[in-house]
Amino acid sequence: MRWSEFPKWGKWAADWAARYHAGLRDRPVRARTRPGEVADALPAHPPETAHPMDEIIADFESIVVPGITHWQHPRFFAYFPSNATPAAVLADNLITAMAPQCMLWQTSPAATEMETRMMDWLRQAIALPEDFHGVIQDSASSATLAAVLVMRERALNWQGNATGLAGQPRLRVYASDEVHSSVDRAIWISGIGQANLIRIPVRGPRRGMDIAALEAAIEADRATGHLPAGIIACTGGTGTGACDDIAAACAVGRRHGLFTHVDAAWAGSAMICPEFRALWAGVEQADSVVLNPHKWLGTQFDLSAHYLRSPDDLTRTLAIQPEYLKTHGANGIINYSEWSIPLGRRFRALKLWFLIRAHGLEGLRQMIRNHVAWSNGLAERLRAVPGFEITTEPVLSLFTFRYAPVGRDADASTQALLTRINDDGHIYLTQTRVDGRYVIRFQVGQFDCTAEDVDAAFDTITQTAISLEDG
Ligand SMILES: *Cc1c(COP(=O)(O)O)cnc(C)c1O
Questions:
Q1: How many angstroms separate the alpha carbon of residue 326 from the centre of ligand 1?
Q2: What one-character-per-residue DSSP string does 226-253 give?
Q3: Cα 272 to ligand 1 centre (Å)
Q4: pLDDT digits (tens, 9 = 90+) for 144-192
């Protein structure tokens, strides 16, 4: 295919995208593919000769699309959202057409300067203080890994990269069981080791770290010659939306000279609404904060916003400058590849620029407020239905419930309900465990979701429960 043919197929793709989105409600949310079905439809060997574009596109429609789980479906209530918006998709298309590699300022000044400005726009939108500086990471997992590496280097007086961990005291990092698995991986990859990720028990309805236990754990570790390095707190944990007391966690961190990272990957987007900011009160005391506009906000994957109070600590940990990456004759510029683990970077900030301008902060706030209100409304309706139990109260737009009809095993009934709902495909939900009990998560977050879609979820959940009783 040549660029001269691009307008034809580009127009086809744009039309297809609009039709796809308009027709999403008619599709099952979750792919009904059997394992191996897509692989079997793909030839085992690559073609020696060129295929015409219309053949490739026909195969895309017949082989690929049926194997997609539709994250942009308005009745996607599983996991967390991964929203795409037409304005941000358009920005992505434009970036991809130019395909710049934006590792250094000089490899595309517009990408670097746009990133600085957009991270500052978003900082203002979520009301972080001016002394936070943002960088776009590919994912929250990378941001958390970068934060853990900074914790390690600070605690080791910047010797970890140079000499490794052998012979050093054992580093310790503290978090609850409610934090995301990306925290465990960051601990593994940084060489700190799972045994040195100290789990602090949670308490209260918010399932936040027991702050007295956190402080006691740090003191006990110090007394036994360990080296406490950092605290990882969460606002809106993945399972049930657990929220640590960020102010208290940061105060402990400061008292003990530890680096505090706040994972607000999902919930952080809601902080564009002032009324939700109480959930992370004290965040201005943190050293590092991550939130994913690629989840709720609408800058489709990937675009993770990582804010640091001292980016110098980050670049001291990650920057490396062989001669071929030096930029001569330009002082005071930022090379964002020194702020992140991969060297190469896409031009992601353009998605945020298009999104924020096309919707305005007020439009984005309204979307989030609707989702929170609808989710809370659904929790109230379900609570009133015999056999249903709300197991964790809504945190923003996420709550969990289970189905426990009298005289039946609640775990088995809840699991059976979830399986039947997802096999039907009208809506899509996922599960977690709360204190060992099997529960269903419900979150509202898809950009085009309406109040009617949430009503449809209520009908599906309750009618499926009745159909289970009928056998
Ligand atoms: C989704 C999520 C992550 C992981 O995000 P990625 O960007 O996919 O790495 C981390 N923490 C929390 C709380 C999340 O919800």
A1: 33
A2: -EEEEEEEEBS-TTT--B--HHHHHHHH
A3: 18
A4: 999 999 999 999 999 999 999 999 999 999 999 999 999 999 999 999 9
